[in-house]
Amino acid sequence: MSDPVNPARTNPPPTKRAAPRRELTDPARYVLQMFELLRSWGIPRSRVLRAAGRDEAWFSRLRGDERLTMAEVEPLFDAARALAARSDLGFEFGLRLKPTAHGLLGYGLIGSPDLESAWRLAARQQHHLTEAFALHYDRHGAGGRARFTPLVEMPDERLHFNLELLAVSVRVGVELLLGGRAPSMDVRLSMPPPPHRARYLDLLPTRFRFDPGAQPGVEVSMSRALLQMPLPMAAPGIVAGVESHLSNVRPATTAAVAWAETVMRMLRSADGAMVSAKTVAARLGVSARTVDRRLGDEGTSFSALRDEARFERARDWLVRGEFSVAQIAARLGYRDAANFSRAFRRQAGLPPTEYQRLKAASRDGPPSRPAPGGGANGPARPEPSKSATPPSDPAQATIARGRRR
User: Which CATH number does the domain 25-242 belong to among 3.40.50.700, 3.30.565.10, 3.90.1520.10, 2.60.120.580?
Assistant: First the structure.
């Protein structure tokens, strides 16, 4: 989609070609803590290592601040789930992840002046938590919203484990940051209700909602009063020192995950908000120049990906009908609805209102035909051939024609 400040300027669509790739990593400290949980259940570390294809020699080299690739981490957690044979492993692990479990960053969170400052610090330094998920925080309505969005494809079982781990650890962490006060928040997980759903009642007044149709990830909604509540162990000097140190510690970058794919997932997690290349770079632990160079190697650009992500979000909002065209324009950063409509038409080949109408028509489907043999309105029309091509979505067909022009 075009630049909202200069709607006449458009970006070329991204193209694909072979290019260097970046491996996503996680701190080894979480693997070490998982071993401790399993040991408390009578499952020795040796069994987990053997099931994951590792040995004690490999484990003996691990340090908490070391980083492991997803190819190393995922078999270990898969083995843990299989050996534990419990649906609530992610829930239990989340209960044990206190702020101090996150290394030096945890002490920065504890020393933050209020909960909103802690969320913003976590978002800026999120690669010290995990690179499997993007963390985005913003003000939303009368409060704030934090979203964890997966950056890598994973099977449902692994995704659900991670969603529960994130949701429960956030609930536990916020309570500890508040000095033991149980927080009233709304947490949405993009998964079906688990068999142990009743256990979430123990975490009231935080309300958990399971919605398999939601955008993948975990969304935490908090009131302004909660976000602005002073934290009991605020220490601005410690926070500044922690962030200064963490900003100079960057995860190593090797080959495996496409940069364009990773950046696109992070942009989608922003839910249509304008995100800068500098912000994305900080979350990936590299410079903005590195992001630009790597995306260029893959035949695309940050602005092209950002426009595509915003166009996707615009289409989604139009189809769902949650917002008016003017509201969508404002949420996407356009000066007014007219600029947004012109930009949308250049991308889709039709104005947003027409796109919305066509999508609604495609959902309703064609009118039903009378039964063979006729009815009150006369003889039935001949049945179409079974080999005939079914009609396509009229909105998608119109977009395709517009892009061929």
Answer: 3.90.1520.10
